[in-house]
Specification:
single chain, alpha+beta, five-stranded antiparallel sheet, two-stranded antiparallel ribbon, 43% helix, globular, disordered N terminus
């Protein structure tokens, strides 16, 4: 649920199922693949297609300026493969990432025949193992800057937000930025996935749990990789107590007991809400969800009716 960087308003409007389909056809032609019958799995920050004619996932980035980010994701994927870490694997033999029709495209091995997510215990195990790794400097990983993403996202919402809501969200972002600077992190600083949640932990057809969506891999306090699971349980109710306790037991740290939890949760739910705002031009469902989320944050209302994407 991360927000894209650098796209302008026209790019967001243009990134429809029709335009993504055109990009898919160009991508498949360049890679000698057949797009016939391809299934659109997701249309958000990326259009994600599963080919019917080959075990391949095609990801097409919404952000036209996302080439450096995807180059890092490709580098991370290759490095994780060398470490034998269970994660998404690139289709071999193709130059990646590819720039086609102004879109950044990557090709990944299709890990499963039907969508099945890992358990929270397995996600915790994957994160603990990931956090033990020491990344090579050659990857050029950036430091994770949540407020760079927040301010970029706010600038991109000119056509979908009222002046009143913009003022509220900007004031909240400024306050949270100051509170974030005062946080005392207790976990080590280092490699993080960047969007660690159960939606990015899949069950491979061989039974193994793997991490996917490597675009946000960066360097940060490890609390960032625990916040979504804690938030999904504590505020959104998307995980049960027993599921969350199993996650904590396997990772070995309960973020809810850390004094900085509420600040990190506020920042993350703001990022999630702004991401929904970026999708507003694509469907009425996102428009309704954005209004609902902003109202809940403004009134400190329940988040239990927020819809997952």
């Amino acid at each position: 649920m991360t927000a894209g960087n650098g796209a302008n308003g026209s790019d967001r409007v243009e990134f429809t199922e029709e335009s993504a389909g055109a990009a898919l056809r160009a991508a498949c032609e360049s890679a000698d693949l057949d797009p016939a019958g391809a299934e659109l799995l997701r249309l958000g920050s990326n259009a994600v297609y599963r080919l019917a004619t080959a075990p391949v996932i095609v990801r097409i980035a919404r952000d036209r300026d996302g080439l450096p980010e995807m180059e890092r994701a490709v580098g991370v994927a290759r490095w994780l493969a060398e470490q034998d870490f269970p994660a998404a694997r690139l289709v071999p033999g193709l130059a990646q990432p590819a720039m086609l029709d102004g879109r950044v495209v990557t090709f990944w091995e299709n890990a499963q025949d039907r969508v099945e997510y890992a358990t929270l215990e397995e996600l915790a195990d994957l994160l603990r193992r990931l956090h033990w790794l020491e990344e090579p400097e050659s990857l050029g990983l950036p430091y994770f800057d949540p407020f760079a993403k927040v301010w970029t996202s706010l600038r991109e919402l000119d056509d979908v937000i009222t002046a009143e809501d913009r003022g509220f969200l900007e004031e909240r972002a400024q306050r949270l930025s100051k509170e974030y600077d005062r946080l005392d992190f207790v976990l080590p600083f280092g490699l993080i996935h960047g969007d660690a949640n159960i939606g990015n932990a899949l069950r491979h057809r061989n039974g193994q749990a793997i991490l996917i969506d490597l675009d946000g891999v960066s360097l940060a306090p490890r609390e960032w990789d625990l916040i979504l699971t804690a938030l999904f349980y504590d505020r959104l109710g998307w995980h049960t107590r027993s599921q969350y306790e199993a996650f904590v037991h396997h990772y070995g740290f309960d973020l809810l007991n850390w004094p900085g939890y509420s600040v990190l949760a506020d920042i993350r739910e703001l990022m999630m809400t702004l991401w929904v705002g970026q999708q507003v031009p694509t469907s009425e469902r996102f428009a309704e969800e954005f209004v609902k989320r902003v109202h809940a944050i403004r009134t400190d209302g329940s988040r239990r009716d927020w819809s997952p994407f």
